Amino acid sequence: MGPGVLTPTVGTVLDDLAIQRARAGDLDALERIYRAYEGTVYTLARRICRTAEDAEDVLQETFFEVCRSIGGFRGSGPGSLTAWIKRVASSKALMRIRREKYRETDELFEDGDAVARRDPDVALTLDLEQALARLPDRSRAVVWMHDVEGYTHEDIAEMMGMTVSFSKSQLARAHARLKTWLGEEHR
Q1: Which of 14, 110, 174, 180 is the most exposed place for a label (fewest CB within 10 A)?
Q2: pLDDT band at 85; cut points 50, 70, 90
């Protein structure tokens, strides 16, 4: 049940009628929603979770929740549906991190960082994907949700059950790490 190859854009697939039909429990409309958003949800989950398997689980959990709760969805149009589904997916991915006990120590430097400090060539050869993968789970989630998805620190704090200052400090630490790993401090 992985992400589909290429799915049409959400706006061309869904309209208000399809959303209304999904709210009423129409299985064809729910499948259209799944097909329209599976790639988006999988990509978001993959960026937050450590493994493809975890992202697959988040994809399934998200759409179980969407099918279960869409009757209570009060937005209108594909744009608000997109925001709602992404919020459900983010929440499920964050719960997976907590449930799987991926907890990181939140120390600025870990063992992998020591290698990069001793051998700058290691840090310079990392690309952004590798650098993001090296971040602790919560830091990576904050970077992705803030810098890519556009969530505010207030939104992130609420979804993670933390404070706004936690979100801001995680983002600042993650940015500092990424700059170091990507060699920007050496330019």
Answers
A1: 110
A2: very high
Judge contact between 21 and 29, C-beta under 8 A: yes
pLDDT single digits (tens) 124-167: 444 777 888 889 888 998 998 998 888 899 989 888 888 999 99
The CA-based angle 129-132-133, given to 5 degrees, is 85
| Mean predicted lDDT score pLDDT of the chain | 79
DSSP 76-104: -HHHHHHHHHHHHHHHHHHHHHHHTT---
Residues 73, 23 contacting (CB under 8 angstroms)? yes
Considering the entire predicted model, what is its pTM?
Answer: 0.63
CA 66 and chain centroid, separation: 16
Cβ-count burial of 67 within 10 angstroms (0-12 exposed, 13-18 middle, 19+ buried)?
Answer: middle
Question: What are the C-alpha distances in Å from 136 to residues 3, 66, 74, 104?
Answer: 25, 28, 35, 6
pLDDT of 28 > 90? The answer is yes
Q: Dihedral sign, CA of 123, 129, 133, 139?
A: positive
First to last CA, the chain: 44
